[in-house]
């Protein structure tokens, strides 16, 4: 990440925050506090970002994306942390087949997906961490029914 990345990201998110109705220009900082409260993050993280002092961490980025109604993917790309090549969008036909494996088939693991997509080894942990946030939780296992 460069200073330019931080400047561009902060300018983009600043405009996005305003469009979403948060008054971040008030001297009292009411919009910053409300955004921080709604996102469940510290107000200082919002202030540091808007003052171009630091980029938010991954969890703060995820929470802000939710409140600001943008994808985590877009936030990560706009922040300069990852590129569109790092987080490619799936092909429509691939989504259908991957969503519901057939009988006897299994889903790819995130590690297999990263390798199959050509994610460089030094970036696989980040890919797995980010991609894992988009997967549905595994269904709870049920206890077997007692036989009468």
Automatic annotation (TrEMBL):
PROSITE patterns listed in its UniProt record: HTH_CROC1 (PS50943)
Q: Where is the HTH cro/C1-type domain?
A: 35-75
A Pfam family reported for this protein in Swiss-Prot or TrEMBL = HTH_3
Q: Which SMART domains match?
A: HTH_XRE
Q: What is this protein called?
A: HTH cro/C1-type domain-containing protein
